[in-house]
Model the fold of this input.
Amino acid sequence: MKISLILLVVLIAGLAYVRLSPGDREAFHVDPLTAADPGESGVLLVPGPGAATYPVPPGALLAAFDKIVLASPRTRLFAGSVAGGLVTYVARSKWFGFPDYISVRAVAVDGGSQLAVYSRLRFGGSDLGVNAARLDGWLEALQPVE
Done:
């Protein structure tokens, strides 16, 4: 009985730490253009050949993307701003509140602009494709931008 209670307290403390611990802006507000590939812990989308090009200026693309992201459940602005050109969001899992950090920048290219996105988890070693699936949904919602 005593061990069960101790384990329960440790579990609750761990979940509280995951859900309530503040994020370090210096560590997670990162320019996706200079970020290292996160491997299994996230996704890195960089501008270039083969990336979607939107026929709008970078500021308009980032503003449109920002609206989609902030309309997502359990997702909020973490650092930066659309006006500043670099935005980082934190999205939390539904049940346990695990945070994922998503840094976004739009860059000018021939024909319009493209997104640079660095999305990664904070805790653990693999996100099981959650960051890629979330980003795919946001990009699908962004398709009509003109």
